[in-house]
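# nightly structure sweep
# worker-07 picked up a monomer target from the shared queue
# config: single-sequence mode, recycle default, output format = structure tokens
# input follows
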Amino acid sequence: MLLYYFPYINSLLSTTYIMKRIALIAILLFLGTTSFSQYCESGGPSSTADSNLGALSIVGASGSINFTGCPGVTGVQYYTAETVTLSAGASYVLNLQFGTCGGNFSSVAEVWIDYNGNNVFETSESVVTWSGQPMGAPTGYVITVPANSVAGMHRMRVMQAEQSTLPLDPCAGFTWGSVTDFNVTLTGGIDCSGYIGDDRFNPRVVGNIPFSENHNSSICYSNQSAAYVSPDVFYKIVPNGLGAIKVSLCGSTFDTFLSIQDQNGMAIYGNDDAGNCGTSSEIEFPTAGYDTVFAVVEGWGVASGDYTIVITEGSLDLSENELTIGMHPNPANNIIYLESAQNGNVQFFSTQGRLIYETILNNDFEIDVSHLPRGLYMVKLIGDQQVSQQKIILE
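# output follows
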């Protein structure tokens, strides 16, 4: 049954690229039809005891939220039965009681409102911070909605945590405390209805190659790609007979990550830092076998901002054939040895097409795989002029 997935893996052609972050090794580049546009939901408390948001209400808003906490809830608690509407540029009083459902212990708390609608609670969107012993009654905090907020329904997150320090991580897990989410509708501000490119179903279309434009990913775009939680912008490219295409983000104002996806949303190439233009990204890839591809622009981590994308005809003459890597033992345990006359990048793909591990081969043909999960992999060696591959079992 595992071999069923290899037709997909064989379509994952690769190009030479250098990544400066080891963290990128573990990124999942398999992008299926599932939407990744969602707030982090796996954190929150593991215990229902002690510190907990006791009450929340908003004064001056249209509609109402009147929340009363306790008993405690593990994980993220969703309170969406009551909603409010806030206007860009207006001020409101947020009444909060950081209390307890058990013993009285000191804790810290923070509140975020996703003003730009990118489904990420950013540092700039923190509206309240607090620390101390549980409150006996609600305290009012004045908040002002930025004039450039993005119109639409977004999320407000309230986190209270014991044994923690400010600033809090809005996605963190901990033992005692609470994470409560509320829906708020923002009016005025920026209307995103005219923006396109949020996903591959509504992409920015590259009409002719060469193509270039200056754009911004920080507003009106959400996280639709599995690589990072940053907002991303999709470009649809039709090769029209071009054997290779080069996509460059050189000159962008933030640390970018660039991937190329096929029509099914599967990543077939990826690049973090191009090397020749700092933290910007660049990919040159062959188009054989693809009628349409998507270039996905996003940031490293949560980064976003102004970028320049340039798409031109490539000159890459990279041939992928049936050559296999001389690799032993197979099955392997902790160490594998490669018999190769070329250096390059070595990539390990899972049977689902995910890039699980990558290392650079520099005259050292011994690879430690003891940290990888046991199972079946497709291993690719990407040299300057040739891509070789071989299946291997780790046991």
